[in-house]
UniProtKB/TrEMBL annotation:
Residues the record lists as binding ATP: G26, K27, G28, G29, V30, G31, K32, S33
Annotated function: Binds and transfers iron-sulfur (Fe-S) clusters to target apoproteins. Can hydrolyze ATP.
Self-association and partners: Homodimer.
Full protein name: Iron-sulfur cluster carrier protein
Keyword match Nucleotide-binding: yes
Organism: Novosphingobium aureum
This protein's UniProt keywords: ATP-binding, Hydrolase, Iron, Iron-sulfur, Metal-binding, Nucleotide-binding
Keyword Iron found: yes
One Gene Ontology term of the molecular function aspect: metal ion binding
Any Gene Ontology biological process: iron-sulfur cluster assembly
Annotated family: Belongs to the Mrp/NBP35 ATP-binding proteins family.
Amino acid sequence: ADREGGAQAGDPGKLAMPRIIAVGSGKGGVGKSTLSVNLAVALARLGLKVGLVDADIYGPSQARLLGTEDEKPVAHDKRLVPIASRWGVPVLSMAHLTKAGQALAWRGPMAAGALTQLLEAHWEDADVLVVDLPPGTGDVQLTILHKFKPAGAVIVSTPQDLALIDATRAVELFAKGKVPVLGLVENMSGYICPHCGEESDPFGCGGAEAEADRLGIAFLGRIPLDIAIRKQSDAGVPVAAGQGAQADAFAALAARVRD
Ligand code: ADP
């Protein structure tokens, strides 16, 4: 199909963009990248053509999470070509464009320029583009929201009070950018000890659901703190690509996001 619709390089206003789902969080380290990659893989398992953009330019992790860290993208017609991954989800990350471990100390305009390249790549085959945003609520995020008008946003938080307060700011950021908030996901919610099976709540439990209620937004579900998620992430094998309770949790989340 002619999805490009006469798109021209250097003519971003005319680029046919897939539906963008932005994944944000108020602060770093709450599992936003983990959630983004697993959501993308789970959406692909539902039969959608999904691409993943790692817009977390200061801490890019999607190249590793999809096992593509040694790849470099080529350009075609002055636009980047997404990198295929083993999991059926093509990806582009700042990590693909910079040397491993290279620290970026860019000011807002440069960062926004780099992100534009990732977003204006050859995504014309995708139905949905999952965009892993930088944590927080700064100018870069707002620019991206204004320029690329996501169809919806998913916000990730841990059950902890501090993370929740920051998540509230993220909700406000999307509201300001007129992006509909699809809902809040509680990550690292409950921990089942792999040795004794006892369940504990290192970061509390249920806080995100109560906060979603208070803010009048949907609660999309909980993902437990599970060592398998961390280990598989490090190995570049998203749990959502496999079988079992965690894959099911991401499949349920993807179904809610899709509908
Ligand atoms: P963020 O993108 O918000 O900075 P990451 O997705 O990079 O956070 O996650 C931070 C760390 O926590 C990573 O090592 C990741 O593997 C781990 N992690 C995230 N979510 C879970 C989870 N539900 N269970 C276990 N480890 C997790």
